[in-house]
Amino acid sequence: MDADPQTQSAFITTLPREVRDAIYLELWRTSGLRQHILFHSYESDWNARHFCRWACTTDFCVESPLQQDIEQLRRDLDVPLGEDIEKNRDPRATLYGRRMQSPWLNHWACGERAEKAHGFDAIMGFLTSRFCWKGKTVPGVEPEAAPNVYMPMLLSCKAISAECLKSIYESTTFVFTDMKTVQMWFGYCALPPFMQAWPKRGITPPAFYKYARSFELSLFPTFPLDLLCATKDLPGLPTRHAVYDFHWLRLDRFAHLTNVNIWIESRSLMPLSEDNLNFSGIKRFSREALHEALACFSSVPSVTISTVLGSGIGPDDDGRVETLLRLGRLVQARLGDRFTRI
Fold it and tell me: Which of 154, 213, 277, 313: CA 20 to 30 A from 266?
């Protein structure tokens, strides 16, 4: 039987577009509608840099379930805030301590899934953008079933491929947990010479700005240290750029962005004192300065930011500081046990 021409396929001619879109959505759902984006290389070949994805199973939450677990452990052991919890008193202390140090931040559960399937490399280090671990397996552990439904559909006929590309980016929430990946995916202002020499660098998928509706960031409070245009004297940039105007998110390039969630961790894994930092952390902002910084999000219908704020910015009873973010929620996160002074 001869193949139907792509524009005469029964799938295209018989089913209305909204029905086809519903079918596509169910396909993407099998892989997960929330996807971590990771910028990886290989230990054997640093030049083989590429983007990986990992299904995200951690819904965004302005509170920290891990901090709540730690507080419950303190109550159970009658250990006051500020005193160390001895690891040998309760196995939960070791587990929670490990989760506090996860490079996956509040997505530590996603990291634990990756570690279970692919080994310790998935949670090692300070950043999730390191060496690629997806090709590794753990002896005796069945790899997590992760159907790749994207490529077969994108490689089908031209008409279906175009519809699927739009559907994928519209329905997926893209999750980023380190600034290296953010800059490679969203685009960078300039690169230092050694990075310009890389044979492979991150290229922003054109469909991201054209179709994407939702993305999420989880960052350490020291994230400005990793923003190249703000911390380096780069060729082509007469001055270093600001951090908290969020220009590096390229919000003006999005055609249909409707939702942004940002989690800024209260803890830092970097043992740096304030004197060694060349930037102002978000805790140092006054109410007026913070209001001005967050004005860039005014065009996004839904924005939620969970972060520690300065002592002069008091939240409402529910933790929200509504007046600082016109169209969204700015939530004062609790400091927890070990917190940064940035």
Answer: 213
Q: What integer pLDDT is reported at residue 84 of this predicted model? A: 82
Burial (CB < 10 A; 0-12, 13-18, 19+), residue 166, is: middle
Of 303, 212, 305, nearest in space to 254 by CA: 212
β-pairing verdict for 34-42 and 259-264? unpaired
Backbone angles phi, psi at 293, to 5 degrees: -65, -35
Rounded to an integer, what distance in angstroms lies between the CA atom of residue 77 and that of residue 306?
29
What average pLDDT score do residues 66-73 get?
A: 90
| Start-end of H helices in the chain | 10-14, 17-31, 65-77, 91-100, 108-118, 150-154, 158-171, 179-186, 193-196, 206-211, 228-231, 287-293
Q: Which of 307, 272, 19 is nearest to 163 (CA)?
A: 19
Write down how long the chain is. Answer: 342
Burial class (CB in 10 A: 0-12, 13-18, 19+), 210: middle
Backbone dihedral angles phi then psi of residue 31, each to the nearest 5 degrees: -95, -15
Q: How far apart are CA 143 and CA 140, in angstroms?
A: 9
Task: Report the sign of the C-alpha dihedral through residues 80, 81, 86, 88, in that order.
Answer: positive
63 pLDDT tier (thresholds 50, 70, 90): confident
